[in-house]
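Re: zinc ion structure - here you go.
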Amino acid sequence: MFPLGHPFANKNTKLFLAGKVAKRLLTEAQEAFPYEYSALLAGRGADITMHIPLRPIEPATHFYQWDGDSLVRALREISRADLEWLGVLHTHPHSPPVPSQADAAGWHYAQLSYWILSLQGIQPELRVYQWAEGAFQERSYLITGDR
Ligand SMILES: [Zn+2]
């Protein structure tokens, strides 16, 4: 089986996103614009240290569907790197970083983190959520420097 992490295991702990990963995610998301971009996030515990871009079935501006093979390959890569799958990220090129109805219908991994990067405004806006009690709850995170 694929190694599923528990980034929210400690409720008082923030998630940590490595600065170099955050930078790459933003660059790749902006390159994909005006289409959506998506990636798997991996690391250990509450520390995200790796991302793997996912290929969409077809480029979309408002709805993201993962390609199954691309997802399986990404999970294998996480496994080979001896890391845990900690979450997913996708962009909202034209809307705020708030989960859509399709997002809510398509995601029920309560133990993983669900990141949305909005490119709607002048400044990109990144939020993280956890699926809990039948709804997305916003959680907090910190972008860390290189350690
Ligand atoms: Zn969305």
